[in-house]
Amino acid sequence: MNRHRGLRRSVTRVARVLLALCALACASLIGAVPALAHQPVTLDSADRTPARGPLLVDGTVSFAVYATLARPQSKRAFRVGMQAGQSLQVQLLIADERPANALEAAQLPTVAVVSPTGQRFVLRPSERTPFYEPYSGKSFLYLARFTTTAVSGTYRIWVSGRSSSTVRAVVGVGYREVPGTVRP
């Protein structure tokens, strides 16, 4: 009896693998295999406040928000739409290259997140975990990560510089690798 159960499990596993391979082969034949990478959004000097910055309509969609911070106190900002109960995920990264990767923690950028209810969270550099992003072919360092259960509404996010060296910060938002909408 146990022998037949084990055989059935093996056949089921093989069938699942074959089905997945067939689906991948069919999708690649029709050009439907999506690239799995955060969708890039670049903030510029006009995006100094969330009201002026772009709105990521669905904060569960995976975005990489780039902000060049050229001096201490420089700020870039954007907004993220969320529904109650969704997972809000925000990460702060920098490119793993000089001068950014040589800065002390007190010189690295920070990210402030303000919820629709006014609750404020600040992501301060607390790690330097390497991360290779195959889509761009670049290496990054995770500096801080934050996850919470969202309330409905628009979250406001600021990225702030703390160094006299130019630093290109990346704020990762979301986790679903699907196309998303960005509004001005």
Please provide a brief summary of the model.
By secondary structure, this protein is of the alpha+beta class. 15% of the residues lie in helices and 40% in strands.
Written account of the structure:
The protein is an alpha+beta fold and 184 residues long. It folds into two domains: 33 residues; 145 residues, Jelly Rolls. It contains one helix and twelve strands; from the N terminus they run H-E-E-E-E-E-E-E-E-E-E-E-E. Strand 8 and strand 9 form a beta hairpin. About 15% of the residues have low confidence.
Keyword list:
184 residues, alpha+beta, Jelly Rolls, 2 domains, 6-stranded mixed sheet, 12 strands
SSE blueprint:
Elements: H1 2-29, E1 39-43, E2 55-56, E3 63-69, E4 75-82, E5 87-95, E6 110-114, E7 120-123, E8 129-133, E9 138-149, E10 153-160, E11 167-173, E12 182-183
Parallel strand pairs: 1-3, 2-4
Antiparallel strand pairs: 2-12, 3-11, 4-10, 5-9, 5-11, 6-7, 6-10, 8-9
At the third CATH level, what is the topology name of the largest domain?
Jelly Rolls
Corresponding CATH architecture of the largest domain: Sandwich
**Structural class label:** alpha+beta
How many domains in all? 2
Unreliable spans: 10-36
State the CATH class of the largest domain: Mainly Beta
Give the overall average pLDDT.
85
First-to-last CA distance: 63 Å
Relative strand content:
35-45%
| Helix content bin | 10-25%
Largest sheet: 6 strands, mixed
The number of helical runs is: 1
Spell out the helices and strands N to C: HEEEEEEEEEEEE
**Which term fits the overall shape?**
globular
Strand order of the largest sheet: 1-3-11-5-9-8
Kindly state the number of beta strands.
12
Radius of gyration over alpha carbons?
A: 20 Å
